[in-house]
Amino acid sequence: MGHQNAHDTDGTSSGFTSADPVAEQALDWFVRLRNSEPDAATYAAFQAWLAEDPRHDAEFRSLETLWNSRSFSDAVKTLPVDRRALLRPKTRRWPLHAAALAASVLIAVGVWQYSALTIAIQADFETATGRQTTVRLPDGSMMMLNTDTAVATDFEGGRRHIRLLRGEAFFDVVHDPARPFTVSGHYGEVQVLGTAFSVRTGDDEDQVVLERGRVQVLCLCDGKGMGKAELVPGEAVSITASAVSPVRATDPSATLAWREGRIIFENASLGAVLEELRRYHRGPIVVADERVNRLVVTGNYRLDNVEGALRTLADAAGVGFYRIPGGIIILR
User: Fold this and answer.
1) Do the Cβ atoms of 210 and 200 come closer than 8 Å?
2) Same-domain status, 187 and 238
3) DSSP characters for 68-130?
4) Where are the alpha helices (DSSP H) in the chain?
5) Can you name the residues that pair with 52 across neighbouring β-strands?
6) β 328-331/285-287 pair status
7) Which of 205, 221, 252 is the last residue of a domain?
8) What is the mean pLDDT of the chain?
9) Whether the Cβ atoms of residue 173 and residue 192 lie closer than 8 Å to each other
10) By three-state DSSP, how is residue 192 classified?
């Protein structure tokens, strides 16, 4: 089966933006003064802007504090190494467009590219960040790939086997008692005859959610096949390198809302919501104050406008929102 890849264009702009016009002006001045030594006219204009409104000075000083704060530096350490150059505070001035160019080079030749290339070679179907696609499989079953997902398929010789190489996929399987349908992730394998369920892979675990029918989930456990669970509709389970978790109840209409292009959460920590939204956003989302992660939020947002969702969440939670070059969003 031929490799398929959904390509789209990153519509992010190269400038700084904020949900607050004053903050946006402060960001603009911050970049202009940081990129080069200001001449007398520029410095006079900056001083005039500061004098216009006490908020101007307060917002600019807040940016300086944020840029040099330990919490911001700690947040930057969580980013992929290729993105850190865009955010790391410096004692000398340097042009941000040069850092963006350097980051682009790192993205093109960085170490992470090896893993991405390996998956691309193996994958029969693949989606880009923020994109989804539906595939009709040779047996008539339906497979829907979520954001940043890659799968390999094997339907030769009567087999019905899917390998989830990365990401998350939902399967609506045609009933065929003679040919079990299997989906393997990094740590577990799901075996069904005919049902509807999702599998999501992660660095530390796989997750299975059952919407309809019954499935058996096995832990691969280094090939030993230790640990298993059977799910009924409305149940979910996680599989690690060593065990299958206890079965837990879940609401598939919320857990699988991504199929309708939405994310739904109720009384969830903002940190957990941001972790989910990062899967759909091309640039990093940085939290510069750990207290932001602990805020409790409820919402129902469209996934085709993650930045809009983040702006709304930030506004509702009373959190500062900043967007800087490279599609990087900072919440503080």
Assistant:
1) no
2) yes
3) T-HHHHHHHTTS-HHHHTTT---SS---HHHHHHHHHHHHHHSTHHHHHHHHHHH-SEE--TT
4) 21-35, 40-52, 54-67, 70-76, 81-84, 96-109, 112-122, 252-255, 270-277, 290-293, 306-317
5) none
6) parallel
7) 252
8) 80
9) yes
10) strand
Higher pLDDT, 260 or 72: 260
Residue pLDDT, tens place only, 126-147: 999 999 999 999 999 999 999 9
Which of 33-37, 79-83, 244-248 has maximum average pLDDT? 244-248
Question: Quick one: 241 and 145 in the same domain?
Answer: yes
- Type of residue at 300: N
Residue type, 304: D
- pLDDT tier at 191, thresholds 50, 70, 90: very high
> 209, 230, 252: which is the final residue of a domain?
252
Cα–Cα separations (whole angstroms), residue 239 to 150, 161, 183, 223, 248? 19, 19, 13, 13, 12
Dist CA 199 CA 208 (whole Å): 5
pLDDT tens per residue, range 289-330: 888 999 999 999 999 999 999 999 999 889 989 887 667 888
Q: What are phi and psi of 287, to 5 degrees?
A: -105, 115
* pTM (2 d.p.): 0.69
Domain residue limits at 179: 137-252
Q: Is 189 within a domain?
A: yes
Report helix, strand or coil for 133. Answer: strand
Structure tokens of 273? Answer: 């919501």
Evaluate whether 237 touches 208 at the Cβ level (below 8 Å).
yes
Read off the tokens for 286.
């940085």
Residue 148 has a pLDDT of 93
At 151, list the tokens: 């799968």
Question: How many C-beta atoms surround the C-beta of residue 51 within 10 A?
Answer: 10
